Amino acid sequence: MPRQRIVIHRARADQARAKPTDYSTIGFGRWFTDHFFATEFDRENGWHLTRIEPWRLLQIDAAAICLHYGQEVFEGLKAYRGKDGGIYLFRWRKNAARLRSSAKRLMMECVDEEFFGQAVKSLVLLERDWVPADPECSLYIRPTLIATDPFLGVRPGDEYAFYIIVGPVGAYYPEGFNPISIWVSDEDVRAVRGGLGEAKTAANYAHSLCAQQKARQLGYTQVLWLDAIEHRWVEEVGTMNIFFRLRDEVITPPLAGTILPGVTRDSVIAICKRWGLTVTERMISIDEVMETIASGEMQEVFGTGTAAVISPVGALSYKGEEVAIGGRRTGELGARLYGYIARLQRGEEPDELGWVERIDELDAEQVARGEE
Ligand SMILES: *Cc1c(COP(=O)(O)O)cnc(C)c1O
Q1: CA 303–ligand 1 middle distance (angstroms)
Q2: How much is the pTM?
Q3: In the CATH scheme, what architecture does the domain 7-174+352-368 have?
Q4: Backbone angles phi, psi at 106, to 5 degrees
Q5: CA of 282 to the centre of ligand 1 (A)
Q6: Among 5, 12, 17, 225, whose Cα sits 20 to 30 Å from the Cα of 239?
Q7: What is the tens place of the pLDDT at every residue in 13-46?
Q8: Any idea where the domains of the chain sit in the sequence?
């Protein structure tokens, strides 16, 4: 698919939305900008009606397939503001590729990688004033793909909409970079082999709400999921992949179909290897985790994801027993990774792996015309 032409309809002054006045309290997922990107697909025209327009309610048929049968996939990435004022994207091609594999799993049409990048860049550039300068904050980017044909009956859609919304965000967890407490679900499971676990799709999250509520009621922030068959092997956390630092080895469960292949997970593995650490992708049982925490051999546990980058885990609760990890303090490796990745994402570290793209020198209109 060649580059598309994105038509930009700018918001009038009276359509501008209020910007946050205090970035320290913006939280996550509450603020959105003045415009959104959208493009539509049907069998006759392919992707068409490609535009950026002022924020408005979406118009969607009440019978749209996505609303009834869950054909929806999404992505999450960020644009970062560096100390130099530059605007940076981090490994966006990984998100474009993952959107495509999620879409394929759900039998959906999808935009190609170049078109994805063009759309993300032109929207972020148009909203450049919304990219926060505060180093704790960033502009969250939510690409979304839905089946829109009005039809009741179970079959893949023939019509799709791909849209992108963006908004400034602060810390994902109210705890900030302080360790979170996690509850291990030994009944509800997140994903089964052959299921949807690998896809970033709404169903996985709708399905997790029940266990999430149990965790909350017991005073925990997130759920740690175990495998669906033996309820024994650690998989991942609600919205994060999980890492263990055990006897100086960095361990994370392998991607075997039930775990979301996180971009941050991939980055952490590559960085730890470059730092000379032993990284092992292997199955790890909850018994091994609990025993090595109790014996003091478990040095650190942390989650990884775009929203929080690194989220130290200070305590785990399993079958009514709570164990504290590393004195409930942020671990050394987690802190080092957080600092390094956060600086890398803002153009403040040498980009040896070619993961970072500075985009603020580009012009929104030019990118929209496909002339980047
Ligand atoms: C998005 C997500 C992650 C993290 O992926 P990143 O690409 O690192 O943001 C991990 N697990 C689940 C279930 C997710 O939805």
Answers
A1: 10
A2: 0.97
A3: 2-Layer Sandwich (3.30)
A4: -100, 15
A5: 18
A6: 17
A7: 999 999 999 998 999 999 999 999 999 999 999 9
A8: 7-174+352-368, 180-329
